């Protein structure tokens, strides 16, 4: 059963994997892939995944998860970051590059996207997930922090004062411009967690074990539909080199 929180991401990725099924195992690079939430399931499908992450602890967890899933031979753990991706794994080596929840934290997002493009083979696909500015504003307002909501709305990077861990948040136009500026062609934009975060505390399960079919179906429907897509917690873009 697919988690409601990642359903839109997996739908886009799986469509690409299915489209290229005749090509055999794909070479996938997961920039900032941490403990392997995407890498291990992809390896379980038979693909070869290199996870590049700056955290040795996260990579150690990845190695344990890969061993437990009996896919350690298909996963390579490499310490590094998105900005130096090409130097770590090489140019034009990947059929797919994942960059999930990374660009809101790096010092040079344009440089990181350029590195992603360099790693992709011609025709390869980048799967990019970023924090959505509109969702952060609404979340603060709903929680009663109207001052923080107003601050995030006014700030050019969508940040709020007092402990914000993100360096920036994006709106759809801004992240599309970032990717196209590095020579990628954006094919799809989805909302991620349109409903999932709103349902926390309501009794509706959004985990991988027990989400209802109705909830999963509605989440996927809203992920593509305006204006709901643009209020999702995250934005997921599929961009082609």
Notes on the protein architecture:
There is one protein chain. The chain has nine helices and seven strands; from the N terminus they run αβαβαβαβαβαααβαβ. It has helices at 7-19, 39-44, 56-68, 85-89, 109-119, 133-142, 146-154, 172-181, 213-223, and strands at 27-31, 48-53, 75-79, 94-100, 120-131, 185-192, 234-240.
Would you spell out the secondary-structure blueprint of this structure?
Layout lengths: L6 H13 L7 E5 L7 H6 L3 E6 L2 H13 L6 E5 L5 H5 L4 E7 L8 H11 E12 L1 H10 L3 H9 L17 H10 L3 E8 L20 H11 L10 E7 L1
Parallel strand pairs: 1-2, 1-4, 2-3, 4-5
Antiparallel strand pairs: 5-7, 6-7
Helix pairs in contact: 6-7
What are the key terms here?
single chain; 241 residues; alpha/beta; 7-stranded mixed beta sheet; 9 helices; globular
Q: What pattern of helices and strands is seen along the backbone?
A: HEHEHEHEHEHHHEHE
Q: How big a fraction of the residues is strand? A: 15-25%
Return the average pLDDT rounded to an integer: 94
Total beta strand runs: 7
Extract low-pLDDT stretches.
none
Structural class: alpha/beta
Count of helix runs: 9
Largest sheet: 7 strands, mixed
